[in-house]
Design a protein that fits this description.
By secondary structure, the chain is an all-alpha fold. About 65% of the residues lie in helices and about 0% in strands.
Length: about 160
């Protein structure tokens, strides 16, 4: 019986976000290899590096904040609390914002439009298949405390 309860105590996300972003970025590199689409005038690679550093910093801080609160970072595992400190004071999804920054930074660093073209389906999948599912799960599990947090803090930025 406990296995059934444990299995149902998750948001049921359709994909692990890091794998989605990594897969899309690798696909953009393959597409760029077969059909190069450099960014007109060349991508500002330094801006890409800045975005990568900031994105990783946001992800790292968000992970540490979740771990300090004693909840699972993996979105397919049960949440144990609503985390409202650290970067979660500014966005309900700092890890996903950070991953998006890293992805965009890599796209600029590798100077390919393919990364931005593939970003649209990545963001749609993240929103519909991960974020909205997590929100429904957190509201079901934590009720009013989560609704209050959701009313104070933006979903993304």
């Amino acid at each position: 019986m406990n296995d059934v309860v444990s299995a149902s105590d998750s948001p049921g996300v359709v994909v692990r976000p890091p794998f989605l972003y990594l897969g899309a970025f690798l696909a953009s590199l393959v597409l760029h290899w077969f059909r190069p689409l450099p960014i007109v005038g060349g991508a500002p690679r330094w801006l890409g590096l800045v975005a990568i550093v900031i994105g990783f910093a946001i992800v790292r801080t968000g992970r540490r904040t979740m771990q300090a609160a004693g909840t699972n970072v993996n979105p397919s595992m049960p949440a144990t609390t609503v985390v409202t400190s650290g970067p979660f004071r500014f966005t309900r999804n700092p890890l996903y914002v950070g991953l998006t920054l890293v992805y965009c930074g890599l796209t600029l660093a590798f100077d390919t439009w393919w990364g931005f073209i593939l970003l649209a389906p990545v963001l749609a999948t993240m929103h519909l298949g991960v974020v909205l599912r997590e929100e429904r799960y957190l509201e079901r599990k934590f009720g009013e405390p989560y609704r209050q947090y959701r009313s104070r803090v933006r979903r993304y930025l």
